[in-house]
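User: Fold this, then the next.

Assistant: Folding the first:
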Amino acid sequence: MLLAPRPWESGRRSAAVQTLRVGHTNGSVETSPYRSQPLPLTHSPFLFSWVPDSSQPFQWDWNDVASGVRRWALIGCLGTWIGGNPASAEVSSREVAFFRPPALAQIQISPSGKNVAALTTTPDGWTVWTPRSSPTVTPLPPAATIPGGFGRFAWIGDNQALLTSRSEAPWELKSLPFAESTTRTLTPAIGVHWVRPVVTPLDSAVLIEGYRHDTRGRPLGRWLDVWKVPVGGGPQEQVARNPGDIVEWKVDARGRVQAGLALRGTTQELRLAPTAEEPSGRTVFTFDGIRDPAQLLTVSEDGGSLWFAARMGRDTRGVYEFDLQAARVRRACWTDPDFDFDGRAWVVGSTLVGLTVERERPEWIPMNPRWSVMRGLPGVPISLAAEGEYAVLHDRTPPERWVGTTLPPNPQLPFGTLLNSPGAPSDLPLPEVRQWTARDGLSLRGYLTLPRTTEGTRPPLVMLVHGGPWTRDFWCWSPEAQFLASRGWAVAQVNYRGSAGFGWAFQEAGAGQWNRAAQDLIDVARGLAESGQVDGQRQVITGASFGGYLSALALTQKSQPFRAAASLGGVFDLAKWWRSTRDREPDFVRQVQRAWLFGSGRLESPQMKIVAQSNSVPLWVGHSQDDALVPIQQSEQFVAALRKAGRSVDWVSWPDGGHTLGTPEQQAERWDQVERFLSKSVGR
């Protein structure tokens, strides 16, 4: 049950080469002699099913926990492995392009708005864009490399990049002055095993969080201290020492630690920064870490306010402003009765100017009249600079693009379109926002992508089930949906009960009640057939990880309409999977897993394990042998039980690819296998 970063934040999939592209908003060009190796996201600090290595203790990013894991999407949004076999001859280059990464990721404007740079997966070149011309590609000079690749990019002033590297050795933080040909390592004296840059406008130093180590380089604990690291070299200064239970720090724009989020059992504690009198920090607010995990968003420049997301007694998660001096909640900034907050708070100086939120589609919610003009622009902001004078926006309408502009918008001086997804066709069908009603009256939200078909014909339907289950389907690029639609399928993506993002009651309704979630999928399929939008005699279902579990579970329900099902890296015995996490995840994470998967029910209740004899239609099962998150034994044992019961099953195992199915070529080939099986099952 790997949870990966949302595709519009990190780029959908990693590629063989990452470089840094830099452009100037005044039209001039500066080259950067930099090129890196691919980032192995298999070692990233994902929340629930982290892939450990022998050199690194467990660590998770508390923002992931605090957002109820809604900020992380399952397989189908990110792949991370490089290498493997090319796609089969049956898969066209156009179809492989659906799964390729965008050319740019993490586009950022420098603090003054002078320069624009981004991580890139395009080898041997960098993109330069000017206010009045199209982007051009310039060859890179000999590159300085970072072993293991890098994962985060940020600005230090206007002329240096801050890069977090990853290797089998301790993590490193490096700076890249654009006028030089090599990077500078900023963290050797600390010897941290994991770093999280706390980026501030400081030109001379950056703040980082990292583990303490002994003289032999071994970590002394899992908790993080805060260090001030001079960019030009010199001794590092410990700014805040962790009392032992802080899982996240918040720092203002002047580089001062203002608050921390601590974990005590299943309770979160918001604490003020530690002092000599109170070395653990004073607790000023608490949250239920299971039912109402808080997410700390940002701190004002003057250190007076902190914004966080939480439920605060409501069903849905909203955004609240906390007065750090008075130690009290000042006001509710944004709430919605139907949607949890899932996005970002944008603060300019000490003023909250707007929020990006996820409802049916991504939206910009202005908190200041000056910022209302952004509602008319394509996409939502991913980078602001120079007191809000410049912005880069991400438009996720397929094919996605990044757009730069001045604020307020100046049609005579736009940055223009920075990127269209490489190789993605421009005639893609757009996903339609839909709302359905389950048999018990529960409202369900999701998306329907209809293929380009002859007028009057009814396409076959594939129910594409998201994993998690504590994530949701978003309005975003879905390579799987576009791949299937390109082959003539209508694709339904349903946020079944138990999905996150629609309030605690909706999420809790699925925990331990997954038969009802499977019935949600059946109800939507029936409704689409009854409306005449799809062919009711040609309906199938597929999903990966937990989506594979629900696909198989749907086949055990009475009067289900699906003619076939396919599972990729699926879970078939939830209790067995949960028990397998005992040695690799801390107790709190296991308690969250148990509550969100099983509710108050028993681990061994019948619906927690798929009964092979109950599956009455053809089933296709595929699994990577090197899947570290859902072991291949889950599929092998289920397939053996199916065959023993005399049920029809096609079984495929792949030597590599992990939980996310590998390279774009591998993913296209494996989804090609799924689509061909489903087509054969409905007589196409």
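Now the next one, as you asked:
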Amino acid sequence: MVSRQSLYILFSLTITWSPLALGQMDSLHLLTPIIVEEKALISPKNTSNPVYTLDQEQLERSNTTTLADAVKTLPGVYLKDFGGIGGLKTLSLRGLDAKYTRILIDGIPIIDAQMGQIDLSTYPVAQFSSMSLALLEPSGTLLPASAYNGVNFLSLQPSTSTPKNGLDLQFGVKMGSFGLFQPHLLIKNGWQHHQLGGFINYQSAHGVYPFTYQNGQLTSHDTRKNADQKALNALTNYQYKNNWLKSTWNLQLQSSNQGLPGAIILYQPNALGQRLYRQNWSIQTKNTAKLSPKWDAVIQYKWSENHLTYEDPTFLNEESMLRNTYQEQHHFTSLGLRYEPDTSFSVYFVGDLDYSQLITNVSQLETPRRYYWLQALRINWHNSRLHLQGGLLHHYLFDQNKSSAATRTQKWNANAGFNYQILKKQALFLKMMYKGLFRMPTFNELYYNLVENPNLKPEYSNQLDAGLFWEKRNWAGQEYVSVDAHVFYGQTRDKIITVPTQNLFIWSMQNIGTVENKGGQVAITSYFKMGKKAGFTTTTNYTFQRNIDRTDESKSTYGHQIPYTPQHLANLQVGYDRHKWSLTSNVLYNGARYRLPENSIGNYLPPWFTQDVIFLYKMWLNEIELRGRLALNNIWDHSYEVISYFPMPGFHGFLTLTIII
């Protein structure tokens, strides 16, 4: 079987280059791009869409341990958090599903076997030096074709800079609430054209915390149980770089053993002993070559194998035990060319092949397979004040399952954007963007659940955005100030809604005929310099969004907000830094939402807000840097839920100590 797959993949390397190829196969996870590359941070001035960046210093001063911590404060982002250390954490931007967020490492998609959604809490921030969130992929970056099939683009830049003295070493440990013990080690060694590095992160926690739950007039006090977790994330990488070639190789292991705390239901225990075991292996390589002054090429490949086991010791069957196993095998190949006749014009062509298969002990499934061809053609042009970009995306998807007839799906998408500097000598930019999207249901949505829905239809979506970006330095007593304001509108046909039921593994899925999303967002950032060694930073983000069911006027849900999409999202971050130390306060607000499509009183979830305080101190002993960070979260001990029946922890705190050599 492996030999046949390998031959097919090698053969497909030539097929993906042809415009007449059968199309593109939607990858198992159609995500908004998250890219890990050794490039400068994406600038809002050079893109035709909203872009928000966090550099290493900002990540450090914020309460960010994982990607989930980092993204939840960005405009338009609603982090679906299922509570506690081991709770699933996924990203929703402007009410769109997490699978529209493309996540890549060094240009190659992350593949995850749990529900087709990337759990952002499993990726430590320590292995990255910066991140950027955007809606349309920036020019100048040769990405896989599958990266363009997403709404938002989360770009992660790894910590792969060449060590100053040949060898860099960082060791840290985080301890605190929920019995958390989380050490990590980052090591890099560079010589001549080579660099070798490694990262390892281990996490152990019992996950237990008290909570208060309000059910009508009844207030109950209980303890969150079966939320323990042990997880290992290990990565090793090698890089070779000269004047015309850059080659990177990565090997990664992710392994975890965790309990699945159940939904809080009156008079029923919230811990029934269900467990989830995961072990994911991946090998990937990216090779970028400068063929000539006008031509660049990139070849990428990734193999991954994800093992997932779900156990329920209370399941009512003859064995009084349910043990479902899933083994997902994945091959991804991408070939790309960029032609740049001059500095103002460039053309990109990229072809991908994505192959996935699912092996499981679930009796009714007969090893489903998915072949997905994807081709992208993109054009970029700019002068001193105007930047234009646009592209076409062709999908061809072939699903095969012995228990049912094979299905073929073909689709074209287009996207376009422009960025115009309104005033020649002022940093004031007008931006507009259009993007068409297509998403097939993942294996997870079709097959992974005890309540799976094999009849789910693909999603089709169109998204529009228009906005203004302005920035100024040394203005009104401020060292720096920027304002980024946007309005957006979109429609999604056959939107796939996923809602958890019994626990974080048992979900229900359904299509909603037509969903309309519209709204606006604004981000304001300012920095005041106070003397030579002190500064005061403020960041304010606000989003208003309406995600409405527009399917059938005769239905009771017509005109109602779709589940888990708050109308109001806001964040205020205030920081003061002085030489060796900094103090940051972060307030996060989420508005009211509903747990089900019908916006009734019984489905209403009230708004909530939390405030975190982070204290960071640095000191140096010769060339050794020591860092200490104390994070106090939810300092007002508020009781709240992001997802219904999954209570969040109250006041808690963590201490992180780091040594950098």
